[in-house]
Amino acid sequence: MTPPPRRQAARRRTAVLRREAVLATVPVAVAALLGAAGPAAAGTTGAAGAGDPYFPLSGNGGYHVSHYDLTLRYDTASRHLDGKAVLSARATQRLTRFDLDLKGLKVTGVTVGRTAAGYRRHGQELVVTPRHALRKDQEFRVTVTYHGTPKPVTDPDGSADGWIPTDDGAFVAGEPQGAMTWFPANGHPKDKSSYDFTITVPEGRTAVANGILRGQHTAHGRTTFRWHEAAPMAAYLATATVGTFKVERYTTPDGIQVYNAVDPREAHASAPVLKQLPSVLAWESKLFGPYPFRAAGAIVDHAPGVGYALETQTRPVYDSAPDLSTLVHESAHQWFGDSVSLTSWKDIWLNEGFATYAEWLYSEQHGGDSAQKTFDALYARPAGDHLWAFPPGDPGSGKNIFDTPVYARGAMALHELRKAVGDTDFLRILHAWAAEHRAGHGTTAQFVRLAERESGKDLDGLFHTWLYVKGKPKSA
Ligand code: TRP
Ligand code: ZN
């Protein structure tokens, strides 16, 4: 079995666009010019980035956001967005100034607490100067009002992410850096927060975000949807997808509240796959431990040209009807990527390698190819194949994070681990990883240590070979 067609298509597209990618060094230079590239430069000024070498301006330093309260109104005809964001945050240092990430859109006001704050725009940074400096550990609220026509951001690999207009609304998927195209954010997965969304759209359209639907009401030709996600969520996993959708709601035997929104043009193709969602989640819960959230579902949009799906927390967003392995993949991300988050984009194999390996296991346990057979077919590829272009533990730059070596060789690394420790210990490792880092973060080094602890084996050589050695590894 080769990797599934949907993301395969996205990867093929990124491969074609690889050469015209934006130079990855440019943002580093910008960060340096801003004079706030890291903790060393901090002083009483919040850093312009979270310190990620692949996306230096993603996220910000000097504070954590505990909650986002987003009020949005989207006019699907004019594509105009009105927004108000209230961020509840805590300073991690004294702050005379701090940044939010926001790209495009016009800011009409910023307050910190009840007091108007100074602000200026600097590329994707919204630089806020509160009237009074914030003390270390001070809790504060920032309110930003803004409006405009949101545009997606072009990633280093040439793909679009963020607020992507469609013919009946917008496909909203922010990985890795698109949250800033529709709300002011501390936009790096290091910072996780709960969310409230209040989204008003023309009557007849549906706005779907993460978590539980708290209510909806229609007045004067507009419908307002209120969504709440209580579990900590990285900004890139937030969605507010708008369209003409058929909605289906039910509660699974495990008590998970399912809300599916399907573009009628994708309804026929997606119905048999969506029907499997409860059994896929139940199967994954057996393998990985309890499903990490209260809500689940799918947003199946008709968004030709996007070329990928995203594991938006609780409710993945698909650009068209998914096949079963894509559903399995995005569902597995709820454990690996959403509940357990990255601290650095370099560790992306912890998301994509795991979600891909979930597809292999699903196939193996449902009458399809064994994971060994999938591994063997990939391993048979010659040394010059793109699969071996770079090691998954060190993709080198942001333009490679969604490329084949991350997905396929990342999954191969897990298969090698499984063979080395045996099935029982392997499943214990996956379980322990999801449990111990639930609603938090995990790094590659932590995963290696956990695998060694659970198995009692020295696994440095195995992980070194499969995650970090350039070129095709020697067969184990
Ligand atoms: N994380 C997504 C998945 O594997 C894929 C994805 C998100 C992606 N953003 C992207 C792929 C941008 C290519 C380009 O399900
Ligand atoms: Zn994925």
UniProtKB/TrEMBL annotation:
Keywords: Hydrolase, Metal-binding, Metalloprotease, Protease, Signal, Zinc. It catalyses: Release of an N-terminal amino acid, Xaa-|-Yaa- from a peptide, amide or arylamide. Xaa is preferably Ala, but may be most amino acids including Pro (slow action). When a terminal hydrophobic residue is followed by a prolyl residue, the two may be released as an intact Xaa-Pro dipeptide. Residues 66-237 form the Aminopeptidase N-like N-terminal domain. The keyword Protease applies. Residues 325-466 form the Peptidase M1 membrane alanine aminopeptidase domain. It is an enzyme of class 3 (hydrolase). Residues 1-42 form the signal peptide. Its cofactor is Zn(2+). It comes from the Bacteria. GO terms for biological process: proteolysis. One of its GO terms (molecular function) is zinc ion binding. Its EC number is 3.4.11.2. PANTHER family: AMINOPEPTIDASE N (PTHR11533:SF297), PROTEASE M1 ZINC METALLOPROTEASE (PTHR11533). Belongs to the peptidase M1 family. This is Aminopeptidase N.
